[in-house]
Amino acid sequence: MPTNNIRKAIIPAAGFGTRLFPATKIVKKELFPIIDRDGRVKPIIQLIVEEALSAGIEEIGIVVQECDIEIFANFFKTLPKSELFNKLSPENQEYSQYLQDLGERVTFLTQTEQEGYGHAVYCAKEWVNDQPFMLLLGDHVYASETETSCAGQILAVYQQFQQSAIGLTIMSSEIIHKAGCVTGVWQDSDSILSVTEIYEKPDLEYARQHLRVERLAAEQFLGIFGIYILTPKIFDILAETINQNIRQKGEFQLTSCLEILRQEEGMTGYLVKGQYFDTGMPQFYRQTIIDFPSLSR
């Protein structure tokens, strides 16, 4: 197997969280709490950082608004004040040091203007430094159905094919208009896909005509899971999109640039053996709180 040269991961976390307003007026959505499967109450961003590290990632770049750096830094890089720290159990005092250790892996990158998901990724260009990297959505958490984490599974696909890899999940027709959708040709199994099109939030008629995938049941499609391994070519494509001011719904989007990347370099899709949990909308966040802690590791 090729040597793992994926050292860095990007987590965009600079959005306003408008769908979770008014709670996001005071708490960043990436800091909303979830009870993990070990019983600890963790902010969403910690679960995503741990997901990346589970795949062997060494450094995490979290893209935030400049005014929010202190909030995230207080969590990852600062011990509780002494009066609170002394009230913690010995176990939680030790856990506070674990959070400090996580923080040593974390770098904060700034997005000065909220210009869309693609723009947030582009803000990490200099930090990535012309290397392939992992990208994880800032409002999804993941549970693997195997001993290998979801991020680790996608990384293994990149190592095998040495081209950009995108995690996939089966989605019903009822929700496909809310997600990126992928089609392609299955390779030697029902989990590896040679991607032939990526399309952002298709209406159902378009999906039926253009995005059907062999072997899936009727009214089932392949949606984007929320974890990617991308080559640095994506930054060139994003730069051109930004320089030419090509926007979708007023913002610079990632999915259309992923389609260009696919056309230029090829892309492998992988049907992840695991579940994603979207915490970015109230009804999905509520379901995550219910379902996520009960899943076995």
Model description:
This protein is of the alpha/beta class and 297 residues long. It has a single domain, classed as Spore Coat Polysaccharide Biosynthesis Protein SpsA, Chain A (Alpha-Beta Complex), CATH 3.90.550. 33% of the residues lie in helices and 25% in strands. The strands form three sheets. The protein has a five-stranded mixed β-barrel with strand order 8-11-9-10-12. Strands 2-3 form a two-stranded antiparallel ribbon. The longest helix has 14 residues. The two termini are 26 Å apart. Its EC number is 2.7.7.9.
Strand-helix topology:
Blueprint: E1 8-12, E2 33-35, E3 41-43, H1 44-54, E4 59-64, H2 69-77, H3 82-85, H4 90-103, E5 106-110, H5 117-122, H6 125-128, E6 133-136, E7 140-144, H7 150-161, E8 165-172, E9 180-186, E10 192-200, H8 204-210, E11 220-230, H9 233-243, H10 255-265, E12 268-271, E13 274-278, H11 282-291
Parallel strand pairs: 1-4, 1-6, 4-5, 8-12
Antiparallel strand pairs: 2-3, 6-11, 7-13, 8-11, 9-10, 9-11, 10-12
In short:
Keywords: Nucleotidyltransferase, Transferase. By secondary structure, this protein is of the alpha/beta class.
